[in-house]
Amino acid sequence: MFLGLLHLSEAFARESDGVQAWKLLCLSDLVAGLTELGASLERRQRWVKGLAYRALGELAPAEKLLRSARAEFLGREEPLYAAFVAVDLLAVLAAQGELDELTDLAETTYREFVAVRLEQPALSVFLI
């Protein structure tokens, strides 16, 4: 049930319906409190919360959550997830006008996608 709520809230966040995404995230918090969840699911939830904040136009908390999720994925040696989180973080940095940091992160993310042999996402990041 938790994963279903998380996926649904992610879909709403990606469609810029931050209010619905946030409602489902709150519900997933309740479900998470009733179950034993691994740290990976908690990192994924933090990522989706960042997306929901971005959809609501709250860029500062979105940036903080996305940075945190990315750092944790990198720390757990999950570079593919870290790279996908970085793509979402790039959108936040662009909206904030952080062009220097955006360029640095885009280059790093490009290298991460190439390292795991995902040329299509790598090309998309390169175009940023």
Question: Can you describe this structure?
Answer:
The protein is mainly α. It has helices spanning 2-14, 18-33, 39-55, 59-75, 79-96, 99-115, 119-127. It is globular, with a radius of gyration of 15 Å. The termini are far apart.
Give a quick summary of the entry.
The chain has helices at residues 2-14, 18-33, 39-55, 59-75, 79-96, 99-115, 119-127.
Task: Quickly list its features.
globular; 128 residues; 7 helices; mainly alpha
Rg, please?
15 Å
Order of helices and strands: HHHHHHH
What is the strand tally?
A: 0
- Which stretches of 5+ consecutive residues score pLDDT under 50? none
Describe the secondary-structure layout.
Elements: H1 2-14, H2 18-33, H3 39-55, H4 59-75, H5 79-96, H6 99-115, H7 119-127
Helix pairs in contact: 1-2, 1-3, 2-3, 3-4, 4-5, 5-6, 6-7
